Structure formats: C-alpha cells, structure tokens
Task: structure prediction
Amino acid sequence: MLSLPLAAPPALATPVADELPLEDIQTFAEVFERIKRAYVNDVDDRTLLRNAMRGMLSELDPHSAYLDRDEFRSLRETTDGAFGGIGIEVGLENGQLTIITPIDDTPASRAGLQARDTILSIDDTSTERLSLQEAVTLMRGEPGSTIRMTIQRRGEDAPRTLNLVREVIRTESVRSELLETGYGYLRISQFQNRTGDQVTNAIRRLEREGPLRGLVLDLRNNPGGVLQAAVAVADAFLEGGLVVYTEGRLPDTQMRFSASRETAAPDVPLVVLINGGSASAAEIVAGALQDQRRAVIMGTESFGKGSVQQVMPLGNGEGLKLTTALYFTPNGRSIQALGIEPDVAVVHGRVEVTETGRQLREADLEGHLRSRDEPRLRREMAERLREDYQLSEALNLLKALNVVGQRTR
Result:
C-alpha cells in the first residue's frame, strides 16, 4: 500500500462537463427495484447502496475501496502501527486474495506464510467474492481470538489449513544490528508515520559502535505504506536531488519530493535488498537510490505497485481509498506493473559449505587461549548468513567496495 495522509476530497480543476448517462441511471434504478422485489431474501436499501458503492470502487483497480467505519478505523490503525490481527499485507492478484508479504515477527510470519500464497478461505468464508477490504476486516479481530485460514501455495497440489491466534500487531518498522564490526544492517518491515525518524535513530545507534564501513538496507517483503515515510528514508542517504514525483488528473496530485541537505548517512557504502514482496513505498526508496547511483540494488525483481491511494474521509464517518496518481522515480521510470530490476540479481537461498577434509584449527588445540570476542554471537551470525544467501552476498559486496575504494584513493 502507498497512501497519502487523510485529506478532503480533491477539488476539481474545472467543472465536470460530462452529462449524466440517464439511460444507465434508469437501468440502475430498474436493477435496484428488481432486487428489492424478487431477491430470495429481503435486503434493505442501505445495504444495496453500500454494495453498489463498493462495487463501483473495487472495479476501478485492486487498491481503491469504499471504507465503512470499521474499515476506515482499521486503515488508520495500520498507518499508525498498531492493530489486532495476524500481520500480513494482502492484495488481489487475478481476482484472488493473495499475500503480498507477512510482517516480521507476527503470527503470520511465525506460521510460515509466504508472499504469493493465495488465501482460499478465512474461517468458514470463501474469499472468492470478497472485496479486499472485506477480507481485511475478517482477518482483523480481538487479540487472543483464533482465525482459521486455508491457503494454496504455488507448486503444491493440496491446500494448507492453518490456525493462527491474533495478536496486537505493534509494528516497530525498523530493526538494526551489526553484521560484523563496521558493517550495519537496517531492516524496514513497512513504512509508517515514524519510520523516517526510526531509521535516523538506528543509524546513530550503529555509529556509536564504531565507524560504519558499509550498510545493508533490507526492504525484502516490505509492502509499502506512507509516501512521506518513503521520502524520509531516502532522504537519510541522499544529500539532495529528486526522490519521487507523482502524476494524476488533478492539480493537487502533481507532486515532487526532493531530499534535504540534512542526511544521516551521506557517504556510507549502501546495498539495498529487494524481492517480489517489496512493493510501493519500498520501490520508491529503491528506485530513488538506484537512479541517483547512491546504492547497489541487489536481490530479485520487486512487486510493481506504482500507484498512490488518497484516503478521503466522508461526512458520515466512513471513507474512500481512491487511486489518484502514479509515482515515478527521479529518472522518470514508472514502476506500475513493472517493478524495480536489481543491479545485481541474487536469488534467495542458503550457502552450503563443502570441504575436502577437516582441517585442524587453533580452536581445536587443547589449552588454547580463548578469544575476547563473544563466540556464541559470532556463531549465530555466521549461521544466519549461511541461511540467507542474499544477505551474505550483500555483505560480501560491501567488503569488496571498501577494498576497491581503498585502492583508488
């Protein structure tokens, strides 16, 4: 999702000149009357009108939607970073409810749900005819309550059924640590209102451990979020220049966002990891850093969501989420349905180490002097790098960039 802050409906630049199609309105009224008179169950006028508005928006694109009060509140909770649910970002792909990405350290990620899994049912409700917002509403709920989901994974014949327990999803969107001395790691799980400040603070914490010689920015399986947060994150690494611009039909959708001169990490070598679950705001950051030649983009092709949704409150406490613009990278590339191509393609996998024989090492000698470093932490990081081939390659590239940089000075 890529969204702008809550806003009033945009003012039209000129009055709408198109006349209302009276014949179609008459047909709508006829359909409405026949449903009221002949449908097997009695349906009240309010429900029919709400369904008509939902259909009107859902047929535009997968991301526009009519939001009732609960859905409107749920969307605001997601933007603020706290809600009750299982922790997945979903979308419609070929009419099917599909997982874009699980959020880190949530019931969904711990249960092994993956990007591109198709959700067939939620509890006893088939997702076949559900709108995106209806599906999200079903998945949200009180912490501690159980949800049963049936999913279909690509390459598998039989669907899987999982029972998950909802939690309060308070998503701290930024996590940081040192991979090795001098080499930092930043993981952004999604873009929320405070993500830009969190990235700056995380870089400062890493720098207190010593000078940074390189940094990995991990945007894999990041579904996006708030547009301004993406700009703030790119700004942490850029000393100026265009980050992103948007184009739409109305004047207030023609926007340009540039980096400021206040930069948290202007000179640190940077590798950005992306994959098929990197979408929307994540693609803005990757595209800006790629176009400005500030970072090496590594991984696999991103999701390709290049549209901006504006959230518009309505007078009755409900709202619209309406696609109002497309965004473009600094060099004028549209990401919509295309995605970001990495500079260095590296597929996901693990490293298998093969040795011809067991070699004697200092640590094997009886009575050897123990290192002052904490061996457990080093072993854990080594195992993590073996399990995550893309991260291991990102670290290797940063080391290579430092070697080349030293030789050319």
About this structure: The longest strand covers residues 319-328. The chain has two domains: 2-10+46-169, 174-307+323-345.
